[in-house]
Amino acid sequence: MTAALFPDLVVNGETVPQAVVAAEVQNHNAPKGKPGIAWRKAANAVAVRTLLLQEARRRGLSADPAEVAPGRFETDEEAQIRGLLDTAVTVDVPSDDAIRAEWARDPSRFRAPPLWEASHILIACDPRDEKRTAEARGRAIDLAKQAQKDPRRFSRLASEHSDCG
């Protein structure tokens, strides 16, 4: 007799069928050909969810599913976990000074990367300067070859090489 490739999960004595983990796997990335990594991530997520649900049941907590989007509601399990977290976790509201200090520590954490919807690559030069014009033409030809070789890189080429701004 052989053991299952992906066995059931046991959390505090409660058996969670492998089908539950299998359903969770779709939410976890893994390198091609390495499904075990996604399985481990999914098993960890299911174990945490199971622990939270066990604690909610132990405390006798229940919560009605909340509307999370127009016409979309939490599952009963999600509502139970939310109810547990609402009662078990207290979050102190930070002061304005604490917020400013956190931002000052690393402002780049609070900025989104620029959005690029590149449709062109500008190679700027002064047309009166023949040397610079020749350099710009060479640069443009090289970038055009790169973009033709791999069109998916166009946005990256534009963000790295365009003189637009």
Outline the structure in words.
The protein is mainly α and 165 residues long. It folds into 2 domains: 80 residues, no CATH class; 53 residues, no CATH class. It has 6 helices and 4 strands. It has a two-stranded antiparallel sheet. The chain has a two-stranded antiparallel ribbon with strand order 3-4. Strand 1 and strand 2 form a beta hairpin. The longest helix has 24 residues. The radius of gyration is 27 Å and the shape is elongated.
Number of helices: 6
Structural class: mainly alpha
Distance N to C terminus? 66 Å
Average pLDDT for all residues: 90
| DSSP E strands, number | 4
Overall tally of domains: 2
Question: Within the largest sheet, what's the order of strands?
Answer: 1-2
Instruction: Give the CA-based shape.
Output: elongated
- Beta strand %: 5-15%
The biggest sheet, with number of strands, parallel, antiparallel or mixed sense and barrel status, is: 2 strands, antiparallel
Could you list the spans in which at least 5 consecutive residues all have pLDDT below 50?
none
Our Rg estimate from Cα atoms comes to 27 Å
Which range best describes the helical content: under 10%, 10-25%, 25-40%, 40-55%, 55-70% or over 70%? 40-55%
The helix-strand sequence is EEHHEEHHHH
